[in-house]
Design brief:
By secondary structure, the chain is an alpha+beta fold. The protein is 39% helix and 11% strand. A hairpin with a 5-residue loop joins strand 2 and strand 3.
Length: 102
């Protein structure tokens, strides 16, 4: 299942995404969350520390400085991700150029 949470700024997208992701993980599902927000704070909603959330955001920002993008989802999670206390795997991404359907 793929789920996107979108909408106008300040309406609670990050909070809703965090609750849904943690709920699915608690129910035993494998969950990967991608924070594509220009102000990435999903890590906080998933229980990561402010320092870890900032670290993930800084990795994403460095990609604009000529850093190397990861070619596969597994590599994105390995290089740019972290796992929250509830088991949700999170990556902060700048954009998805060529999404792989399915």
């Amino acid at each position: 299942m793929k789920l996107a949470v979108v909408g106008k700024g300040g309406v609670g997208k990050t909070t809703i995404a965090g609750v849904v992701a943690r709920s699915f993980a608690q129910a035993g599902r494998d969950v990967v969350a991608l924070d594509c927000d220009t102000n990435p704070n999903l890590g906080l909603a998933l229980g990561l520390s402010p320092e870890e959330t900032a670290r993930l955001a800084s990795i994403r920002e460095s990609l604009g400085d000529g850093g190397d993008h990861a070619p596969t989802p597994a590599e994105i999670l390995e290089r740019f991700g972290a796992t929250g206390p509830g088991g949700v795997r999170l990556a902060v991404v700048s954009r998805i150029d060529r999404p792989n359907p399915g």
